[in-house]
Amino acid sequence: MPGKDAAKARPQAGEKRVRFPPGWLPYALVAPQLAITLVFFIWPASQALWQSLLIQDAFGIHVQFAGLTNFRELFADPLYRESFKVTAVFSLLMTSSALVISLLLAACCDYIVRGARAYETLLIWPYAVAPAIAAVLWSFVFNPSIGLLTYAMHRWFGYEWNHLLNPGQAMALIVIASAWKQISYNFLFFLAGMQAIPKSLLEGAAIDGAGPIRRFATIIFPLLSPTTFFLLVVNIVQAFFETFGVVDASTKGGPVRATEILVYKVYHDGFEAGDLGGSAAQSVVLMAIVMALTVVQFRYIERRVQYA
Amino acid sequence: MIEHRPGLRIFCHVMLALGVATLAFPLWIAFVGSTHTAERMLAVPLPLLPGGHLLDNYRTVLVHGVEGASTAPVGRMLFNSLVVALCISIGKISISLLSAFAIVYFRFPLRMFFFWLIFITLMLPVEVRIFPTYKVVSELHMIDTYPGLVLPLIASATATFLFRQFFLTIPDELTEASRMDGAGPMRFFVDVVVPLSRTNMAALFVILFIYGWNQYLWPLLVTTQENMYTAVIGIKRMIPGGDASVDWNLVMSAAMLAMLPPALVVLLMQKWFVKGLVETEK
């Protein structure tokens, strides 16, 4: 488990007793990583910060410092607020369905013991599929004119599916395609977490007359809560960022912006609509979101180390 | 297990089988789609069982690409994806290994500053710095080049942390012994640190290879020429806005080919994959 390694590292507090004499060598060793970090990460990010404070006129000739105007305009923009809402709805649906399904599968896999390994292999491969390809596969299955599921729903239930026209169905499509990919990841973590629970605890409870459902509710699930919380954060990060490929390869934010999540909007406004200041301000907002999520994640790891 | 409950056991198997089937369903449909002719793919309902055109379709896609969508042969795109995925994974591992070594085994001014600079990259995914990064890459004339595809993705806080964490567990006695033998830091690095890190490198490699192969947003921005497309981008470009003129059999063949390498890596290196996944994400 990750917590154990961190705990082992802790007494040394990140310090080695034995070191090599410094000189130019350590600088040379960090140089490649540092160069790439500065050129492709720090510099562009500071550019985004700076640009978010500027306003450009329609012809891109005149640039002027505008303070927080871009941000004020951004949050006053109903389309941006709408995009926030779409992202929130999407993250909620995707995260909850992926977590519930994978928890159920992991619990089943943990319970049966025999054959668990084979199921694991059969359940983890979607992790290897690119989000954009997952979207292509699912939009093929749900294709409005030839999709198999579209046909089946029409034939058996009289339900018409067209995610190119129906906003709710478009949202359902990107939720399915993203959750499909996320399930294997969550499953692995849940299963690892369950297998780390001492068997003696469960046996003791069984002797006291607790059935499997009760054991799950009173022992397994509470002990899994660090894993669950960790996965919750990771899934939200996934929903915010990795989904770009899913959206771009299936709905392209449509219909009527029903699936225009924040990351897609940054790309769209910056590259297709050419609104640099606005796009930069959106980047900065996203940066703030990632930072908040990272801080939450790290604080939680600290806590887990103390409890371990 | 603890007690004998055939009912629950059967329920678990049924749930797992359902899960496996649901996950495999779109893959099966794609596979079936890749084995039929273009005409068959226009007749509703679509087939549920494979047809006899598997080899034709895959050969067409690999050598000629998908007609009408005017894209390069998928063989070329797979090659690009392979180069990008290998460069990203090997590059990330190498530079992280070196910087973690410097940070753990030397005390020098600015050490913590460098450490924090690297740490910050964790909070700057491509998605939040797309436009300015694109500008940097185009000013360096790296659009449509492999370095342009690879370099902006290659810094890795996670890998650096993982190696730092691991180096801290290497016993100091090893360092003392090799210093006593007169070995310099690089000698120690090559003879002791790298061999000991092999397990971690393998685990990281699996995760990073998949990460590199599946990149989407960045290759979408920096590739404008068809012969520089990666497989994932190429497939997306095969599907234009309307769906009238799509050769679904060929698109599905290309999709199958693009999924194969990372899936093989996961399945063949399952042990490393699970280890890498659980260890990098902390």
Summarize the topology.
The complex is a heterodimer of chains A (308) and B (282).
Chain A: H1 2-9, H2 25-51, E1 54-56, E2 63-65, H3 69-76, H4 78-112, H5 116-124, H6 131-141, H7 148-157, H8 167-195, H9 199-207, H10 212-223, H11 225-241, H12 243-249, H13 262-272, H14 276-307
Antiparallel strand pairs in A: 1-2
Helix pairs in contact in A: 1-14, 2-14, 3-14, 4-8, 4-11, 6-8, 6-12, 8-11, 9-10, 11-14, 13-14
Chain B: H1 6-33, H2 54-64, H3 74-105, H4 111-120, H5 130-139, H6 146-150, H7 157-168, H8 172-180, H9 185-196, H10 198-213, H11 217-222, H12 231-237, H13 248-268, H14 270-280
Can you tell me about this structure?
The complex is a heterodimer of chains A (308) and B (282). With 308 residues, chain A is an all-alpha fold. Chain A has a single domain, classed as MetI-like fold. Chain A contains 14 helices and 2 strands. In chain A, a hairpin with a 6-residue loop joins strand 1 and strand 2. Chain B has 282 residues and is an all-alpha fold. Chain B has one domain: Orthogonal Bundle (MetI-like fold). Helices cover 67% and strands 0% of the residues of chain B. In chain B, helix 3 crosses helix 7 and helix 3 crosses helix 10. The two termini of chain B are 31 Å apart. The chains are: A mainly alpha (308), B mainly alpha (282). At the A-B interface, helix 1, helix 2, helix 4, helix 5 and helix 6 of A face helix 1, helix 3, helix 4, helix 5 and helix 7 of B.
